[in-house]
Amino acid sequence: MKLNVDGLLVYFPYDYIYPEQFSYMLELKRALDAKGHCLLEMPSGTGKTTTLLSLIVAYMKAHPLDLTKLVYCSRTVPEIEKVMEELRKLMNYYEKEMGMEQNILGLALSSRKNLCIHPSVSKEREGKVVDGRCYSLTASFVRARHAADDAVPICEFYEGFDAHGKEFPLPPGVYNLDDLKEYGQTKRWCPYFLARHTITHANIVVYSYHYLLDPKIAEVVSKEISKSSVVVFDEAHNIDNVCIDSMSVKITKRLLDKCSNSITILETTISNMKENDSKRLEKEYKRLVEGLRDATIARETDMALVNPVLPSEILEEAVPGTIRTAEHFVAFLKRVVEYIKTRLRVQHVVQESPAGFLRDIHTKVCIDRKPLRFTAERLASLIRTLEISDLTDFSPLVTVSHFATLVSTYTKGFTIIIEPFEDRAPTVSNPILYFSCLDSSIAIKPVFNRFQTVVITSGTLSPLDMYPKILDFHPVIMTSFTMTLARPCILPMIVSKGNDQVAMSSRYETREDTAVIRNYGNLLVEVAAAVPDGIVCFFTSYLYLETIVSSWYDQGIIDQLQRHKLLFIETQDAAETSLALINYIKACDNGRGAVLLSVARGKVSEGIDFDHHLGRAVLMFGIPYVYTQSRILRARLEYLRDQFQIRENDFLTFDAMRHAAQCLGRCMRGKTDYGIMVLADKRFSRADKRSKLPKWIQEHLKDTNCNLSTEECVQICKRWLRQMAQPFSREDQLGISLLTLEQLQSEEMQKKIQQRAQGV
Amino acid sequence: MDDYQTCPKCKTTKYRNPAMVLMVNACGHALCESCVELLFAKGSGACPECKCPLRRNNFRVQLFEDPAVDKEVDIRKRILKEFNKRQEDFPTLREYNDYLEEVETIIFNLVFDIDPAGTNKMIDNYKKENKDITQKNRNRQSQEEMELEELLEAEKAQQSEKANLYVNAELEEKKQKHKAREKLIDELMFSDADAKSIVASHVQATAALAKEQPKAAAQPSSGVVKSSKFSSGVQIGLRGQHTNSFLPIPKQEDLPLHRYTAPVFDYDGPPPPAIEKLGKLNYFANIRAANITERAGGYTEAMSCCRALQEALGGLFYSPQLTHKTAVLATNSSTQDTDDMETT
């Protein structure tokens, strides 16, 4: 279908379009025109990906100078593959309509683990091991050694790419990970390096968040992406946490012990090298005297170790004299590690600012701020000079060096927390140093500054106004779209009391109350009796899940439940959980019906869709607040309050509600789907919680459904399910929630769309 | 975690004797506290490992896991007391870095006993040469340290201020809520109006209050937050996107080259006689002739005469319907000028 979006000709690869997709295009086009950032919320299952792709590709074709590249960031590999599929569909449609090959190159990039085709390296399971082995085959010094001595193994695919691949760009087309591998096999080129090389001139790049947000990786992979690109963060409701994680460091006692080991390795390697080949150390020394900039212009394969974000003026300066020679630097590292060890030997929790840490390290072991700032860079240089090919052993030391560099670079927005033991096991000594980033805007700031348009989109971004605050940017457009539906196919309800009128709540004071637990159990049993196929339940934490299940067992609720459906439980073990999931799906598929008990913020709540019969009802037991006693969270809340004027409670509620919305959204994956959403907590009915749900859920949450008891809830469910079970065909949707081109162009619909655009 | 720490002399471990404390002296070898008391009962003695003479007073509690680091830090502190030059004392960064490396080498040599004689000599030389700078620097904080101190102080100040602010704000809010509730109950008890309307108005009032609240909370804190702009509205630092505006001279835009066009006068009068003909027409008879000094400057009477004539004749054809203000002005000024001429 060819659409006219505000004067732009858009090729849309389907015969029908949802009205909200059209409004989404309108808003997105406005943001692209304004060259500003935008925040767009649209329910899952309404075709966000294909909408985004078709509009941006059309815009790129119409304004090839203003918009040169699309960088699409997704979270997981399956999601990346989904995006590539949509893109392929779109390009096929273009080809069919225009009758010629399209000059657009789109590719997916993932880690070496997913792209390696080396016969033995690709067998490895762990990402770090693959990276390390790849490095040991492709580093420049290894290849130089190979030139002298044929016995040194190298990777033939990388050699092939290096010899020929750079001159011949990838022909236009759409390449997902498998296509890249296949292309690499036929040409005998390394697909990973081919993809990384191609990023600079590809039109559409699809990869994971980390390639852009993690400064350690972004520096290497995404440095050369031009300013006139549009960056899309899909499923971005957790983007602030990703930003924070990418800048935080966690140091344990074991890590430090490993560091000491690797320092000894460094020492012996240096003394060996001094005896055999002192020239190389001298060469490095000379280079460092001149300045670091040259050191960073190294071969691409040597970039396995990189520095966290440094202001570029530091890079241009020379390395301070104290750590210029290799021996001095190793002694310096030793002091740093020993110092951190003494810091870990505390009896009570310590929290201090980076400035305090710097002063303490100066008085205790005489280390100035400046050499500390160069640690990461200097270590990378040393490892390169020493030609250590096995990098996996050095990752602890690299972590510590990143910590040293970060702590001396940023004095604001970070905090250091040293906990001698975990809160849950105060007798077991397990000291951990958390260097925690409090400001999510630090990591994402370069992205906002560099690219003309950044699109942040997800199914659940409500409340929208929080994101600009915590990410510290100014969006030109901030919109939440609802779902137009031909029938009310979601049924959100707030159940606040049991049949015995005891209020249901996961509040700290009442969560141990047997009456509350029993009421939760009765609710589940009655819903399970009324609802067919799959039911998914979310609890606030693993701990809470365990206590509830054990008391349900005592009260006989589990037995009652198993009369209706099979029961599966998510645990912290990923393998166990995936086994439970497989069996859950099996039980739903063959009609037996099943209940899955899982945890908000867990694996199930984040990445797994329960479409159609897999999730006919979602029950949210309690409000999923984070563990508020965590010191890192406390520090972050304080920082948000001081720096951005966000009140603690506001942030906590925001965070809880976005996770609740994420859980509820699991059961709705399209317009033909239908599902019940039960929010079982009295507090959900308060205005401050309710208003923070996404608009598309709020729309269907009627006032009459906000204060129900278990029995009322089940009555409503039954009536609604009977209505939903009626046959539902495309004709029912056409004209309301699904439009043909003519219907879209009709005046009435255009008017409606205009209204919708203004209303938000 | 330190269970495996062992005294090298008596082989006691931390595991067996949790009260054991290891001590180190200048040589960097550890001994447990009881061994120190036993071996150094006299106040001085030899290290059981390296046999170097030690004094009992110099024993300290071992701070780090590796006693060598303790030793190094000791030496470092001693050396840095003498070698305390700052970057400001050097003309270039390069020289400062060379100096730092030299210091590092000295410390390294002392720790690993490499060439002790030469190193000591170097230290002595340095001491002699740089006595005054060392003295001076001892009392001076380095710039880095000062920065850190400032930061720490600012943090402290901010913390206490914030704590007060938020505690007060919270208290205030609680009070107000309490008051509002009491007021509602009072009204419900004593007024004759419809209960529903009272409740409705109360809800409205609290909503209005809640709206005001965040503003009030944000305002005092905004004073504390460092402003990112100068009073002129220019952003501090280069964080703004329009870095161009920081150029001292605004960028010249490319314009077409300037081309001269002769100005057109709106004369409005009969043409005056040409300047060359003035002599012939005997106009000079009515004018003072230029004296020698005036002629030296290039002045001739013809010039002033010509100007007077132009001004006298200009604007004679002027009619008010046709022309505009400027013409009027021109004629006015010209008459004045001629007056001046006559007086001179």
UniProtKB/TrEMBL annotation, chain A:
Name of the top EC class for this enzyme: isomerase
Catalytic activity, EC: 5.6.2.3
Gene3D superfamilies: P-loop containing nucleotide triphosphate hydrolases
Catalytic activity field: ATP + H2O = ADP + phosphate + H(+)
Names of required cofactors: [4Fe-4S] cluster
Subcellular location: Nucleus
Cited SUPFAM superfamilies: P-loop containing nucleoside triphosphate hydrolases
One function term, GO molecular function aspect: ATP binding
Family listed: Belongs to the helicase family. RAD3/XPD subfamily.
Protein name, as recorded: General transcription and DNA repair factor IIH helicase subunit XPD
UniProtKB/TrEMBL annotation, chain B:
RING-type domain segment(s): 7-51
GO terms, biological process: nucleotide-excision repair; regulation of transcription by RNA polymerase II
Main location: nucleus
Subcellular location(s) per record: Nucleus
SUPFAM superfamilies linked: RING/U-box (SSF57850)
Keywords: Coiled coil, Metal-binding, Nucleus, Zinc, Zinc-finger
GO CC annotations, alphabetized: transcription factor TFIIH holo complex
Keyword Ribonucleoprotein: no
One of the Pfam families matching this protein, by short name: MAT1
InterPro entries in the cross-refs: MAT1/Tfb3, MAT1_CAK-anch, MAT1_centre, Znf_RING, Znf_RING/FYVE/PHD, Znf_RING_CS
Stretches assigned to coiled coil: 123-158
CDD domains: RING-HC_MAT1
Recorded superkingdom: Eukaryota
GO molecular function: cyclin-dependent protein serine/threonine kinase activator activity; zinc ion binding
Protein name: CDK-activating kinase assembly factor MAT1
Organism: Daphnia sinensis
Gene symbol of the encoding locus: EOG090X0BPM
